[in-house]
Amino acid sequence: MQNKTPPLKKQRTDESVKPIEFDKSSESWKRSDCLEKMTENKIDTDLYSRQLGTYGFDLMNKLVKLNILIINVKGVGLECAKNLILSGPQSVCIYDNDICDISDIGVNFYINEKDVEDKSCRSDAVLKELQELNNYVHIYNYKGTIEKNWLENFDVVICCDINKEDLIKYNNMIRGIDKKRIAFLSCNIYGLCGYIFVDFNKEFICYDSNGEQVKSCNVSKISKELEGKVSFDFDKTSPFEEGDYVQFSNVEGMTEINNKIYKIKNLKKYTFEIGDTSLYSEYIKGGICTQVKKHLKLNFYPYEYICVNPLNNENISNNEQKHNQNDNHFLDTCNNIIYENIPQPNSFIISDYAKFDMSNHLHYSIQALKWYELQNEKGLPENSDEDALEKIYNYAVTLNNKDKEEKKSYAVEQLKKDVVYNVCRYSKSHIAPVASFFGGLLAQEVIKFTGKYMPIYQLLYLGFF
């Protein structure tokens, strides 16, 4: 019997998603030239199989249409670019005209000594290697001036390791574009700490905050009374939570309840209440109760506002908070969608439960450092410059004292001097593992711009000391 080589495996594709194929003959492309060379193609479901299993086709259809701009690829910017290119957006543009420095080699794995000797700019040095990561993504660099009209070509703009003045300038330019919604993200790392800022503009809708499957159960009985009680069959415990919204279908007898949305109240192990059912017909049998996911409406603010007012400073009681939460829900009866207005958060995201207030200290430390950077001609302090460190610490204390006088909830009783000094002393350092960590988080936030998963709202501070 002759051994026959197996036939080549046919590439599986999905027609609903159409990414792009491009000509890689040149190392530096203009955006207009590349668009002419693009041809429609189908997504490689073998290449993206795990991603499709995690995200689903709905998110992937949005992701492959995203055009992304990344400003500065020293460390965290390159890590973010790598992760995004592997995820498969339509295009990624790199903007970084800074000349390669010897310090780049330790944090940027695509820059070598030859790039430093040749005095290549960073975008040229990393472009070829980035292009080899994913043939379905158009990757190019840009060396012109960043203007508002040019930014309209993008869906997401990411700024990495830039000073406060440029951050505010680019953020305001993006928010000034009325033609479409453009996401703006920023990330700076300072040695063993850093922050991420997210701005998805006004009235951003998150249609699925956790990505979990919709829960459902079989209905066994529905009572006819002022507070109608629903009994359901489930193997373990209730699949729902207090305050969830559910929709009924296939109910016999009490047909008035079908295809309507109700809020769960007084949830027990096998029962919950849905309100007045006294005017409905008698329940006979059957029915399926399915969870309805709330669409979260978030209003993002520009960095110019958030750096001064990072949190919601309204001090309200628990009863008032519950009342406001009820007022924040409203039903779109035409589409059977529940919307919930999400206010600005009252506290920072806690990254380390052993250091509850670390984000508060990092906020004042980094804001004072950014102030010094502008005062010092956009230069960060040297680690041995004690006068500069003391100057930054005093300004951070001034910021904190001002917020304490205004009774802002995020002000700390006493600012930790060692935290401020650690942030400032190593602010010029770019550590590869820290850049990799923040680059992964930043790329993850870009994915959330599709509307799936709850994004950072709006600041995240992290420190590893």
UniProtKB/TrEMBL annotation:
Occurrences of domain Ubiquitin-activating enzyme E1 FCCH (ranges): 227-293
Record-level Gene Ontology MF annotations: SUMO activating enzyme activity
Highest taxon in the source lineage: Eukaryota
Species of the source: Plasmodium falciparum RAJ116
InterPro entries found in the cross-reference section: E1_4HB, E1_FCCH, E1_FCCH_sf, ThiF/MoeB/HesA, Ub-E1_IAD_1, Ubiquitin-activating_enz, UBQ/SUMO-activ_enz_E1-like
Annotated Ubiquitin-activating enzyme E1 four-helix bundle domain residues: 341-400
GO BP term, example: protein sumoylation
Region (Disordered): 1-21
Record protein name field: Ubiquitin-activating enzyme E1 2
Gene3D superfamilies: Ubiquitin-activating enzyme E1, FCCH domain, Ubiquitin-activating enzyme E1, inactive adenylation domain, subdomain 1, Ubiquitin-activating enzyme E1, inactive adenylation domain, subdomain 2
Protein biosynthesis among keywords: no
Pathway where this protein functions: Protein modification; protein sumoylation
GO cellular component: cytoplasm; SUMO activating enzyme complex
SUPFAM superfamilies named in the record: Activating enzymes of the ubiquitin-like proteins (SSF69572)
Record's keyword terms, sorted: Ubl conjugation pathway
Family label: Belongs to the ubiquitin-activating E1 family.
Compositionally biased spans, kind Basic and acidic residues: 11-21
Pfam family for this entry, one: E1_FCCH
